[in-house]
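Q: A reviewer asked whether we had any structural model of the full assembly, not just the individual parts. We don't, so I'm hoping you can provide one. Inputs are below.
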Amino acid sequence: MHHPCVTIPAALVEKLATARHVVVLTGAGVSAESGVPTFRDAQTGLWANFKPEDLATPSAFRRDPKLVWEWYAWRRETVAKVAPNPAHHALTAMRGRFRQFTLITQNVDGLHQRAGSEDVIELHGNITRTKCFQEDIVVTEWPDTGDLPPKCPRCGGLLRPDVVWFEESLPEGAIASALAASRACDLFLSVGTSTVVYPAASLPLEARDAGATIVEINPQPTPLTPKADFVLSGPAGVVLPVLLKHVPA
Ligand code: BJW
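A: Here is a predicted structure for the entire assembly that you could use as a starting point for your response.
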């Protein structure tokens, strides 16, 4: 897909030709063109009156586990119905073109993997997995008792999605590898993320402090924008395929 409005600056083309380790951090914007609503977009339909910030927390789950479970069930259905878009596919294709390539995502939708990306670092978990709220272990099967949320087959605790809520820590291995890659890369792409949620938002800053070139791909400005070396303002599904064309095969 070519888009006449996207021009890649010559200095970035040069950087793409010489970069040895590229890190990409993605956020909800990368899945927007697949039809997955972003986090800070107004929600629609049934969920229009709820703010994600008020649902994606342990206290929300304690207060009203059924509500939170049903919100995730609804989102799980959306994710199952949609497909990866040209942004996901461009990132999958990019991998083999650099000596080292690290794909880090804040998304829980698994669309990078469905587009064929391997070794994706998932910072905020995956909505298709379920774990026990009590024991914090992944559960793959449970008896259908009609309870919502369903109960843990081991301990009877409530089941919840295996995602990272506010105030919870990120999976240790995931954030450690993400941080190490960000500090070691020479080119860092921040794609479709508002860069307001920490610690994920610190990754481009760490990369920048370590001397990497920072590229932001987003139709809207973010707190990272003034700190980026290049800003490609547009939808990821349009910009990334154009960018890919400038990466030597
Ligand atoms: C497009 C597009 C297109 C649209 N193409 N782009 C330091 C400072 C301040 C606060 C903190 C701090 N450290 C920790 C905190 C607290 C908190 C935090 O960051 N709060 C801030 C909001 C103030 N962080 C945490 O609590 C984290 N845990 C933690 O730090 O543990 C230690 C601790 C323990 C005890 C107490 C306190 C701390 C955990 C954060 C977990 C975040 N979880 C969520 C939910 C996941 C599950 C689920 O999906 O339900 O993760 S929140 C939500 O935000 C989700 C996302 O991954 C994350 C980031 O959002 P993202 O992806 O950037 O989406 P949007 O919607 O914000 O933006 C979309 C962007 O796309 C926009 O810019 C659009 O313009 C753009 N766009 N169309 C390209 N076509």
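A: Points you may want to mention in the reply: The longest helix spans residues 65-81. Strands lie at 21-26, 100-105, 121-122, 125-132, 138-139, 159-163, 187-191, 213-217, 230-232.
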